[in-house]
Write a structure and sequence with these properties.
four-stranded mixed sheet, globular, Signal recognition particle alu RNA binding heterodimer, srp9/1, 2,3-Dihydroxybiphenyl 1,2-Dioxygenase, domain 1, alpha/beta, about 190 residues
């Protein structure tokens, strides 16, 4: 039996809160669940982050009303922590984490990321896993802090029984609707 729940939240130490919100809130559509500021009156927060006490502005975002898989943005000031990897890296690095989101419209995310001037590691690309019968449209980018982000739009589930129905996603994928229409016509005929 696992000792932990499904992933609750990913915390990102951001370089610019407003730039991060423009991506996660405005482009990806995550909503603000809770927001706050803290200083030396909350020494435990800084101990948990492994940094000296200072000032932090934090925002926790979620998809819909789901309270797992959230993204926490933490902007630390006084002192500001050092940057560990350049935001311009065009490839994944060893030991690096990658946030993965499902979307109903990868092309819209791509356009939004381009409008923000984010580094596109790989533009929307069709990825097929033939042995599973899976086909997806995916892209990878770096968020405003250099964090690797992968966005997936399911096209064909194959044996993995995937769908574009995820908590927080409001509308079905255009690709899924077209495929569903073709599948239902094929089954009735």
């Amino acid at each position: 039996m696992p000792l932990v729940t499904p992933l609750k939240r990913t915390a990102i130490i951001v370089t610019d809160m407003q730039a991060s919100l423009r991506f996660y809130r405005d482009i990806l559509g995550l909503g603000i669940w809770v927001e706050g500021r803290a200083g030396r009156e909350m020494p435990a927060m800084f101990r948990l982050l492994g940094v000296p006490a200072g000032a932090v502005h934090w925002v926790i975002l979620q998809s819909g009303k789901v309270d797992w898989g959230m993204v926490g943005l933490f902007e630390l000031k006084r002192p500001t922590p050092p940057r560990t990897r350049p935001a311009s890296s065009r490839q994944a690095t060893r030991g690096e984490a990658c946030l993965v989101f499902h979307s109903t419209d990868v092309d819209a995310v791509h356009r939004g990321a381009q409008a923000l001037g984010l580094r596109i590691v790989c533009p929307p690309t069709m990825l097929e896993i033939p042995e599973r019968g899976v086909l997806s449209k995916e892209m990878t980018l770096r968020d405003p802090n250099g964090v690797l982000v992968n966005v997936i739009q399911n096209v064909r589930a194959g044996t993995m029984k995937l769908s574009n129905v995820f908590p927080g996603l409001k509308r079905p994928s255009r690709l899924r609707r077209r495929r569903s229409g073709a599948s239902s016509r094929g089954r009735s005929g």
